[in-house]
Amino acid sequence: MPEYKLGTLRGRYVVQWREGGTRRRYRLFGTHEKESRKEALARLEQFKRESSLKADPTVAELWEAYSKEKTGRRVVDAMKSEWKVMETSFGHIKADKVSTDDCRKHIKQRREAGIKDGTIWTELGHLRTVLNWAKKHDIIRHAPPIERPPKPAPKDRFLTQAECQKLIDAAQTHHIKLAIILLLSTASRITALLELTWDRVDFEQGHINLKVDAEGPRKGRATVPMNAGARAALQHAKTGALSDYVIEWNGQPIKCIKTGFKKACKLAELEGVTPHTLRHTAAVHLAGAGIEMTKISQYLGHSNTSVTEKVYARYAPDHLRQEADILDFTSVRKVTG
């Protein structure tokens, strides 16, 4: 790592270092010296990885560099698994030379292998993310557009109140039951729930903070109130907690609840249900109860209300009711003489 100097410029911290006789300077976001120094070291590590890439890097080299920078994030685990397939289609190609034909060929091969469009859409989305990251950091001059299959329509499956209770009752292990209760009561994404630690469960204030930290992933993460059912389940779990993680097994955090969740669904005789179905279920029930879209959006951690309205407005009891009444031309009208 090159020697660096931390300074200020126009009221902001900056880090400076030399690269081949040329001075480089990077503006930091930190407002205090300690956090700015930490940010500076992270930026220099990033620069070191980027500079190790040769000119005209291949997709394989960028994929590896991106994965190293994002080490620790769950998306990296998914990308490692995806790379076994993506390497065959794109690994050897120069990053800025990826073409629409390359994408279409990948789509065709994956479909022939029986892979659904939703999976292909995600794979190519990660490729686009890597290329855009490289462009943003000036590793490549141009991030070519990545063609993907149409995004599948979201599954409309949600559980009734009776089905929710059947699923909770069918869970055979404490951590699966706790996960189901919290997924329903917090409308959390499964990743956020599995990363939830006890220091972010505030029994005194009655809040559950699903955000890891200011720098961590924020998609679909909010701070939500703790209802009575969630409080009871959490208090019971806390008495036997063996780790910092709320959802644990034998004192170890859990990466996936797929097996236990599938078993509970089978025992409850519920088909087409995934952990994400419970988040959708929570939102549908909120909308059906007439809760304002702005509040549902906050509960789900959506970046803006339009996302919430697009999916859940139709479940609201009065959705387009006034408009429908205006268009009722069969109504008997009062005749005046």
UniProtKB/TrEMBL annotation:
Keywords: DNA integration, DNA recombination, DNA-binding
Domain Tyr recombinase: 154-325
Keyword DNA-binding: yes
PROSITE patterns per UniProt: TYR_RECOMBINASE
Pfam family, one: Phage_integrase
GO molecular function, one term: DNA binding
SUPFAM superfamilies: DNA breaking-rejoining enzymes
One biological process term in Gene Ontology: DNA integration
Taxonomy, superkingdom: Bacteria
Entry-linked CDD domains: INT_Rci_Hp1_C (cd00796)
Sequence similarity: Belongs to the 'phage' integrase family.
Protein's recorded name: Site-specific recombinase XerD
Species classification: Bacteria, Pseudomonadati, Pseudomonadota, Alphaproteobacteria, Hyphomicrobiales
